[in-house]
Amino acid sequence: MSSSSALPVSRGILYLAAAATSWGTAGAAAALLYRGSDLGPVAVSFWRHLGGVLLLLPLVRPSLWAGGRHRADHGGRTPRRRGDRCHALVTGVAMAVFQTGYFAAVAATGLAVATVITLGSGPVLIAVGARITVGERLGSGGTVAVLGALAGLGVLVLGGGAASVRPAGVALSLLSAGGYAVVTLLSRARGAAGADPLRIALAAFGVGAVCLLPLAAAEGLWPDHFTTGSTPVLLVYLAAVPTALGYGLYFAGLAVVRAATASVITLVEPVTAAVVAVVVLGERLTPATVAGTSVLLVSIGVLAVAEARHQS
Predict the structure, then answer these.
(1) Which family is annotated (predicted)?
(2) Rounded CA gap, 110 and 126, in Å?
């Protein structure tokens, strides 16, 4: 995964789908953490970022040393290295905004509304941003697939019952979607230019952890009590699977798959979350869940085929 320049598009799509699948398990892990401890969402997000740094650092350190020797041989910093640092800073801040804004939106307006606004507006913002910044186009088939995916997401998330919409929650959801769009567009640009996806992920997690530390400390950095012994295990899982592995795969896939397409493929996340909620948390599988999941998966499949044909 250290180099994605020769990655086939089909494998990039699989990487993105695998990343979204891993992200879909994060909500259940967080819900179990909330049940078993008094950790808050910002603290959970902080430990997720910090754990990602600790897990990725041994994998990225050799390339960092090589980069240091390269700068020494050339008499100082190169423009690319300065660009990498700027990208890492902006991506890390945007990732912290994305995750924290989403958690805050859930608290303000509920899980259903926050999810449908954040994940529903994300592909639209990314498609517009990709068209403006790098001239990417989805085409008519891609547009139909995007609309179908958004319709399936709406049925999946909102089909289970009534939901209240509050302006503060809507604003926070849009802020979260904006952070997600920035992460995707910047990472797509850097990955296409040959940047190491693991280095991108490591730097973003490091900056995000620094940004979240004061907020997490104010909320409560470590739980005062544990009702089960699974809290450390869940924190390690969050850091390892949906964070270090998930974002490593995501940034690698972004190097070869267009940003707007990637944003729709990663809507696999709420499908996974729905399945995990039924299997792990004991939630009921409703007809809306089945219908929304079916429409969403068909739309993602159509878009993946269109993307592979476009890039071939």
Answers:
(1) Belongs to the EamA transporter family.
(2) 24
